[in-house]
Amino acid sequence: MNFTNSVVGKRWMAFAGIVWFAYVVFHMVSLLNFHAGKEIFNDFYTWFNQLPFYYLMVAVLIFSLGLHVFTAISRQLANNKSKGVGNKKPYPKEIPRVVAWSGASTLLMFVVFHFVQMQLLDQTDLHQQLLNIFTQPIMLIVYVLGTITLSTHLHHALSNVLQTLGVSSKQNNPWVVLIVLILFFGFVSVPVSIIYA
After folding, report:
1. Which of these, 50, 79, 161, 179, is most buried using a 10 Å CB contact count?
2. Domain boundaries in the chain?
3. pLDDT of the chain along its 197 residues, tens only?
4. Half-sphere exposure of residue 26, counting CA atoms within 13 Å on the CB side?
5. How many CA atoms within 13 Å lie on the side-chain side of 58?
6. What is the greatest pairwise CA distance in the chain?
7. Measured distance CA(15)–CA(106) in Å, rounded
8. Which residue, 97, 107, 96, is CA-closest to 69?
9. Rg (CA), the chain
10. Which has the closest alpha carbon to 61: 100, 11, 9, 26?
């Protein structure tokens, strides 16, 4: 039995997605400290980045992302090789396959880019670093598009995860829409506050 295309594989993919969803929520909430001022924002990230479990968290996130992406690609390739229309899982008609996979690929590239960029910044004054980033039009566009891509992925993925884990049977769960909107506006509030400061 192919692990990645089994129910167990699908659940592991869902759990890996939940790990990242939990981090995205934490990341959004922690970024809202930006509105509290430079000192509070910098002090929080100085404290957080020095926590003993920080590198363990990074390792878990990298492993989870790798597992999630590997399982998603393996499942899709296995589905493409399925013989007969009856065995092939159809893709949602409202989301063309090329759009979905382009969006997932773009999101992966954005996550990697964002992580690398954050590691290269001066960690002693992240508040100023964000000001520098979001006053550059090209970087502002990159981050807004990244946030939109993340939101669309979460809208689709959270519903699937809830179904996979037996929490909800609805494909279009109104709570998922609300959560995605809160995350989107939370992330976007930082560059918007910089633009209109």
Report:
1. 161
2. 7-195
3. 455 556 777 788 888 889 999 999 999 999 999 999 999 999 999 999 999 999 999 999 999 999 988 988 887 777 767 655 544 555 555 555 556 677 788 999 999 999 999 988 888 899 999 999 999 999 999 999 999 999 999 988 888 777 777 676 666 678 888 999 999 999 999 999 998 87
4. 11
5. 12
6. 61
7. 22
8. 107
9. 19
10. 26
Quote the CA–CA distance of 76 and 54 in Å, as a whole number: 33
- Determine the residue type at 109: M
Residue type at 13 in one-letter notation = M
Residue with tokens 């590997």: 70
Q: How many C-beta atoms lie closer than 10 Å to residue 16's C-beta?
A: 23
